[in-house]
Amino acid sequence: MTHRDLLKAFFEKDIPFVVIGGVAMRIYNSPRVTYDIDIAARILDSDAIVDLLYGRDYFIIEEVTDKDVRIPISPQAALEWVEKTRTGALSFMKFRNPPKDETV
Q: How much is the pTM?
């Protein structure tokens, strides 16, 4: 899935968003090279965003240690984590093969 495909999916689901970060800086001919995409969206759209991204094999990054990455394995677990932590930002990672448990 390309950045364009991902943004198109946000449009198709009527999820308001703004592209920020390195991708947005390309509009201003910034020399910064980045391969991720940063999207700002409303917290009240968390359910729709999690459903959209989990349906495309993107998973929330809950914790990164020197040995592994912890992820909520299901959309419901992801939403529970968002509610519990009240985090202001979410990081998602795309997996070629969806993980089977919470430690990758």
A: 0.79
